[in-house]
Design brief:
alpha/beta, four-stranded mixed sheet, 4 helices, elongated
């Protein structure tokens, strides 16, 4: 028992430890008493006891892999598990390569922006849209500029008109605190 006045340190309860899902069950890890077997040639052999399916896989010199564990009875295939895993990794990496991530880039302006500065911001905006990214145009108001939010709205309209039909306005200009925001996306 701890001394009087001493604090005990308690760790928060994080719940039970979940086992990792390391892919499909193979050979001895399969627990179902009966399985629907598909042989190495892709032909359906029918519902067989697990032991018989394991014997057929051993005869072929391959593994018995549970490909559909939720089916009743579970579907198992006779195949080379190493090759199966390699092909699955390859498919996953191809899917990641083809995936296009759309970023949201931000252009910040002030309501009384200079002509040259406006041109620089518009060139950056065109570059972002051409590369397929969405653009968040933000106009920040300070102090007394809050009384002239109409200037910000006019600036947003000017940006929208200059871009023309090349863009789709996802979020019309709206005030969020001390700034006005508009989101544009390429067509």
């Amino acid at each position: 028992m701890p001394e009087k006045g001493a604090k005990t340190i308690r760790r928060p309860y994080r719940g039970p430890v979940k086992p990792r899902d390391n892919g499909p069950k193979v050979n001895g890890k399969i627990t179902a008493p009966e399985v629907l077997l598909i042989d190495e040639n892709g032909e359906k052999r029918g519902v067989l006891p697990l032991e018989e399916a394991l014997d057929l896989a051993a005869e072929a010199g391959l593994d018995l892999v549970e490909v559909s564990p939720t089916a009743r009875p579970p579907v198992c295939k006779i195949l080379d598990y190493g090759k199966f895993k390699y092909q699955a990794q390859k498919r996953a990496s191809e899917a990641r390569k083809k995936q296009k991530t759309v970023e949201v880039k931000e252009i910040k302006m002030r309501p009384n922006i200079d002509v040259h500065d406006y041109g620089v911001k518009m060139r950056a905006l065109h570059k972002f849209l051409d590369s397929g990214n969405k653009v968040k145009v933000t106009i920040r108001f300070r102090g007394r500029e809050m009384a002239h939010t109409n200037l910000g709205r006019e600036l947003m309209e000017r940006v929208r008109e200059e871009l023309g039909e090349d863009v789709k306005v996802e979020l019309l200009p709206k005030m969020e605190g001390r700034q006005m925001v508009m989101i544009l996306a390429p067509k």
